[in-house]
Amino acid sequence: MKTFFQLKRFAKKNIIPIIRPKSAKMLRNFCRVKKPKKILEIGTAIGYSTSIMLDAFKQTFVVTIEKDEKMAEIAKQTFKDRNLEEKVKLIESDAFVALNKLQNEKFDFIFLDGPKGQYFKYLPLLKGMLNINGFLLADDVLFHGYVKKEGDPGHKHRTIVASLRAFINDLSSDSNFETKLFEYEDGLLLCQRVK
Ligand SMILES: C[S@@+](CC[C@H](N)C(=O)[O-])C[C@H]1O[C@@H](n2cnc3c(N)ncnc32)[C@H](O)[C@@H]1O
């Protein structure tokens, strides 16, 4: 698939979750303005958000991690169709395994859009991979609003909600980071490593 329209239509038809429109616009503007040279993405899916970042700032290089084999195959085709193969390294792996192997690499921007229940577990690894003044953007941190709602989210969502709360609280109380929560769509957390 070559165009953003085709990618969005394919995602909708096949019920593949991709970044929502307002958040996608924010991601695009962020890359256009901040011009991160090296990006790490967790959760490639069909390569839609990867393509947005590369379209917004053409000099960037993206390392993107995807666990699902079928998704990775589609993403590879997307990168081929969009002529992005030299600007992307797709790692087909569980993100936690891949992050442990990438510990010697540093990034200017990390876009976290993988398994929400794992964000907190990834955090110590991610913090060390971010350059000073680099940014981390985490998508869907409010988990259908449950993260902000008072009280018990119920048995089904308890673990994921607790993990996302811990993730937000950790970054918000870390003096090495400046953190802002955007409450539109399913919530985006933008953090800058300041020291
Ligand atoms: C919300 S989708 C990513 C959407 C994509 N960033 C976009 O907006 O175009 C989340 C992706 O994370 C992948 N994923 C889930 N668990 C994972 C894991 N443990 N390691 C790596 N990828 C994982 C899923 O297969 C899915 O494709």
Number of strands: 7
User: Quick check: average pLDDT?
Assistant: 96
The CATH topology corresponds to: Rossmann fold
- Name of the level-1 CATH class: Alpha Beta
Q: Quaternary arrangement of the chains shown?
A: single chain
Ions and ligands: S-adenosylmethionine
Number of domains: 1
Distance between the ends = 40 Å
| Gyration radius, in Å | 16 Å
- Assign a percent range to the helix content: 40-55%
H/I helix tally: 7
CATH superfamily: Vaccinia Virus protein VP39
* Sheet with most strands: 7 strands, mixed
> What is the second-level CATH architecture?
3-Layer(aba) Sandwich
> How would you spell out the order of helices and strands?
HHEHEHEHEHEHEE
Shape, please? globular
Please identify the structural class as seen in this structure.
alpha/beta
What would your notes on this structure say?
Strand 1, helix 3 and strand 2 form a beta-alpha-beta unit. Helix content is 41%, strand content 23%. The chain is built from seven helices and seven strands; from the N terminus they run H-H-E-H-E-H-E-H-E-H-E-H-E-E. It has a seven-stranded mixed β-sheet, sandwiched between helices. It is an alpha/beta fold. Helix 2 packs parallel to helix 3, helix 5 packs parallel to helix 6 and helix 6 packs parallel to helix 7. The radius of gyration is 16 Å and the shape is globular. The longest helix is centred in the last third of the chain and has 15 residues.
Describe how the helices and strands are arranged.
Layout: H1 4-13, H2 21-34, E1 38-42, H3 48-56, E2 61-66, H4 69-81, E3 88-92, H5 95-101, E4 107-112, H6 119-129, E5 130-139, H7 158-172, E6 177-182, E7 188-193
Parallel strand pairs: 1-2, 1-4, 2-3, 4-5
Antiparallel strand pairs: 5-7, 6-7
Helix pairs in contact: 2-3, 5-6, 6-7
S-adenosylmethionine binds at residues 17-19, 43, 45, 48-49, 65-68, 71, 94-95, 113-115.
